[in-house]
Amino acid sequence: MSTATLIDRRKVIDWLGIAPFMIFALMFLILPTLYLVAGAFFNPQGEFTFQNIKDLTHPTILSAYWISIKVSVASSLGGALIGFFLAWAIVLGGLPSWIRSGMLTFSGVASNFAGVPLAFAFIATLGRTGLVTVFLNEWFGFNLYSTGFNLLSFFGLTITYMFFQIPLMVLILTPALDGLKKEWREASEILGASNWQYWRLVALPILWPSLMGTTLLLFANAFGAIATAYALTGSSLNIVPILLYAQIRGDVLHNPNLGYALALGMIVITGASNILYIWLRSRAERWQK
Question: For the ABC transmembrane type-1 domain, which residue ranges apply (predicted)?
Fold first, then answer.
């Protein structure tokens, strides 16, 4: 058997290996996305129209987009800040190795802990009769809800989102911190730089693309979340995913094509965030090679 034949067979086997994933992605990601995009430009009678796109400027819809953006920005910035210091502590903070392995394992689990279980966990912890709320009230005489705190609000949803935003930041940023070469710190110390100068002039500029890119990824991650928000706040907080769900499944007017237009707007926003993340990630990888 010739070498060319062996190479051809190897290529066929390689393509067969990725074929199930490609078929899965085509059926459950690409085709549904194309269906949503096309449906945004048709009315329920099947006629081509731009009315659904124009309806996105309705004050209720614009308010939903604005609230979703604010929740996503707040949870991504909070998750990025806390996650950065956690990642720094386990990589460069001199902690025992078992803490690092335990933290990364927990982060891998917590970053995927969302939906109804996460909403229930926060209600059972910080709800009006939650464990922490009752503990503070009975032991310290402090009524958490007398301060204006409400778990079923913008602030409560932001805190809930940060539960999976922080570990995701740790998982993505840890390799970037590992990529900081010891030679860079040694060179800065030889030149007389302080620890603050090293971080301000060397480390942070190198990490900046990774930090910005991961923050954008966290933004997209929060912007598209629906199960946690719906289970936690129901329809009391008007965010885009809940409004989209209402239009397609439960709204009285039941205009699925307007729902498709809402989904198109979400695709544009999250797609732009992910494209910027990929670009910044590629810049960061060039620095760390």
Answer: 65-277
Q: What are the pLDDT tens digits along the chain (289 aa)? A: 556 565 667 777 777 778 888 898 899 888 988 988 898 898 888 888 999 899 889 898 899 999 999 999 999 999 999 999 999 999 888 788 888 888 999 999 898 888 888 999 999 999 888 889 999 999 988 988 888 888 888 899 999 999 999 999 999 999 889 888 888 888 888 888 888 888 888 888 888 888 988 999 899 999 988 888 888 887 778 888 888 877 776 555 567 888 889 989 998 998 888 888 888 877 766 665 5
The domain 54-288 is placed in CATH, from the list 3.90.180.10, 1.10.3720.10, 1.10.287.380, 1.10.240.10, at 1.10.3720.10
- For the chain, give every domain's residue range: 1-39, 54-288
- Please list, residue by residue across 236-263, b when 16 or more beta carbons sit within 10 angstroms of its beta carbon and e when fewer do: ebbbbbbbbbbbbeeeeeebbbbbbbbb
